[in-house]
Write a structure and sequence with these properties.
The structure holds two protein chains of two kinds. By secondary structure, chain A is of the alpha/beta class. In chain A, 33% of the residues lie in helices and 27% in strands. Classes of the chains: A alpha/beta, B mainly alpha. The interface between A and B is medium-sized, with 29 and 24 residues.
Chain lengths: 289, 282
């Protein structure tokens, strides 16, 4: 059993140190629960809409690690602590919207995912300020094989399919999603997130942990509604819209073989990939002369 | 065999008003908070937009942290003040009054040929001047009351009604303002009266605009989402109504932006140098 905590917190725009401090106090509060893995939203350390401010606030992987390592030491956390956290990343002269999986007190940074699908439409303008990532891959944590996808990455189910085919049993999804559509029970995009996470988990037989940012940013209200979904597609626990919340769940990777045996969609896909690939290649190049 | 026909997809204006009210409460709280305020100030006109804004502000901040100001001019309809009082009583907010007649007439007497429309604009600008001064006095942030329909139509006095830094209703059509107002308990007398800026005698919004809000809002929602005229006509609107809406929107894009600046550098503010309004480095 792996104890997970998904933190739905409200960052303060541009206040890196303040947001590290907020994270520290939240972890302090969680200490009695002793989570093994803590998941935070996309761009938690700065808030999401930065425009050109990305240049001023992006961190290198080493800078982020140094901050988190000193935070971990200050916490006097008993044992290792794995953290998934979204941040704006600087590497040389290039900027990315990234999330990191970091094993604090242990091996350090295990994997960095750079957001591949940068929303640049409607209220979003990411690709004006940051570069696309180009890799989607699973990796090994101390608990098992997992993957990370950031926000719109997850809206294209081909990404979670790749991660699942790459062996992931858990997908972590830091997101930042401004609320829109107020005709239904909840904001329309929050309901869509929930449907999507349930569908992905059920299709691939894996856990989905969504950590969704909250807080108003220039009138745009980040929706929240974080959730943890089991490999059968059931919501184990979910956060309300707009409120700071910690979700706690114990994840049992032993369930996955049984679930995938009952519903072997992933294995069927694996088996059929060779016959599907030519068509995938064909549609990728459709329209090219 | 049972034959079932799907409903035609349509754009809905009706909203989940309890959910929306909670969202707008949070909006008011958070947008005030990071600017360093916990009190709001609203010019209460007696109309439904300011009544709803007041109601939401009371929910967000508590009645004791909401200041209401009525700003009558001697030409204003007496019912406007009565309704402003009615709203404030309904939501437990004390109503201050600042008579703008001397401000407006002081300027107006410099030009005997001033028209009713110009005087109306003066009133709107005088009110905003008073509101910002009262904000300073009470250390309260002024809340705007403009709705989406009037913003899309440019049906406001530039750098007057549109000036406050926070606007809870700016993405709500008038139809939705009515719906939410009903939910939060705005008194019936205000909900059911003909909307008017009360800047000129006998003026009504719908008379000025040449179309009712309830019709205009449906056309606007479809037009903004890119539906072609023929589709909108198929919903039961005339070509003239659609054209009227499109004309009002397309003549007024300039009123919805900051002033055009002559760009000469690669660091022009809001052109090349872009930072969100809540961006603050620490």
């Amino acid at each position: 059993m792996i104890k997970h905590a998904v933190l739905q917190l409200k960052p303060e725009k541009g206040n890196l140190q303040g947001n590290f401090t907020r994270l520290q106090s939240a972890l302090q509060e969680l200490k009695p629960e002793a989570p093994d893995v803590v998941v935070l939203p996309e761009s938690f350390l700065t808030a999401y809409f930065l425009q050109g401010g990305v240049r001023e606030l992006a961190l290198t992987q080493q800078e982020l690690y140094a901050h988190l390592q000193s935070l971990y030491q200050a916490l006097e956390w008993p044992g290792l602590l794995d953290l998934v956290i979204g941040f704006y990343e600087r590497e040389g002269g290039t900027f990315f919207n990234s999330c990191v999986y970091i094993e604090l007190g242990g091996r350090g940074i295990l994997h960095v995912h750079r957001k591949v699908f940068l929303p640049t439409y409607g209220v979003f303008d990411e690709e004006r300020y940051i570069s696309r990532g180009s890799r989607i891959q699973a990796f090994d944590s101390r608990f098992g094989r997992v993957g990370m996808l950031i926000c719109e990455d997850f809206w294209h189910t081909i990404t979670s399919t790749i991660i699942a085919l790459d062996g992931a049993q858990v997908v972590y999804v830091p997101s930042a999603s401004p609320a829109r559509g107020f005709a239904g029970q909840g904001p329309a995009n929050m309901e869509r997130w929930s449907a999507l996470a349930q569908a992905v988990s059920a299709e691939h037989g894996m856990y989905t942990l969504l950590s969704s940012l909250i807080g108003f940013e220039g009138g745009k209200g980040m929706v929240g509604g974080s959730l943890i979904v089991d490999p059968e597609g059931n919501i184990m626990v979910s956060a309300p819209a707009f409120e700071e919340t910690a979700l706690l769940a114990e994840i049992d990777l032993e369930r996955i073989p049984a679930v995938r045996y009952d519903n072997p969609l992933l294995a069927d896909l694996q088996g059929n990939l060779p016959s599907i690939l030519p068509d995938l290649n064909r549609v990728v190049h459709r329209g090219e002369k | 065999m049972k034959i079932l026909k799907a409903n035609r997809g349509s754009e809905m204006l009706d909203l989940n008003y309890p959910l929306l009210a909670e969202y707008l409460q949070r909006f008011i709280q958070e947008e005030l908070s990071w600017r360093g305020y916990h009190k709001g100030l609203i010019g209460v006109s007696g109309g439904v937009d300011s009544a709803l804004t007041l109601a939401l502000a009371v929910r967000a901040l508590g009645a004791e942290n909401v200041h209401a100001v009525a700003m009558p001019h001697r030409q204003s309809a007496p019912t406007s003040f009565e309704h402003a009082k009615l709203v404030c009583d309904a939501f437990g907010v004390k109503l201050d009054t600042v008579d703008i007649t001397p401000i407006v007439e002081g300027y107006a007497q410099l030009d005997p040929e001033i028209t009713g429309r110009r005087k109306g604009n003066l009133m709107a600008r005088a009110r905003m001047m008073v509101l910002f001064d009262q904000s300073e006095k009470h250390h309260a942030l002024t809340l705007g009351t403009g709705n989406k329909t009037e913003r899309l139509f440019g049906y406001f006095t530039w750098h007057a009604d549109d000036t406050p830094p926070i606007n809870p209703l700016g993405d709500l059509y008038k139809t939705q303002v009515w719906g939410l107002s009903e939910h939060v308990g705005v008194p019936d007398a205000i909900l059911h009266k003909a909307p008017t800026a009360d800047l000129e005698a006998g003026q009504t919004d719908e008379g000025d605009l040449g179309i009712t809000y309830r019709k205009a809002d449906v056309i606007l929602e479809h037009y903004l989402k890119g539906y072609p005229d023929a589709y909108i006509e198929s919903l039961g609107f005339t070509a003239a109504e659609i054209q009227r809406v499109k004309t009002l929107v397309n003549r007024t894009h300039w009123k919805r932006t900051t002033p055009a600046t002559a760009v000469v550098s690669s660091t022009a503010i809001n052109e090349f140098y872009l930072r969100p309004l809540d961006f603050r480095l620490k």
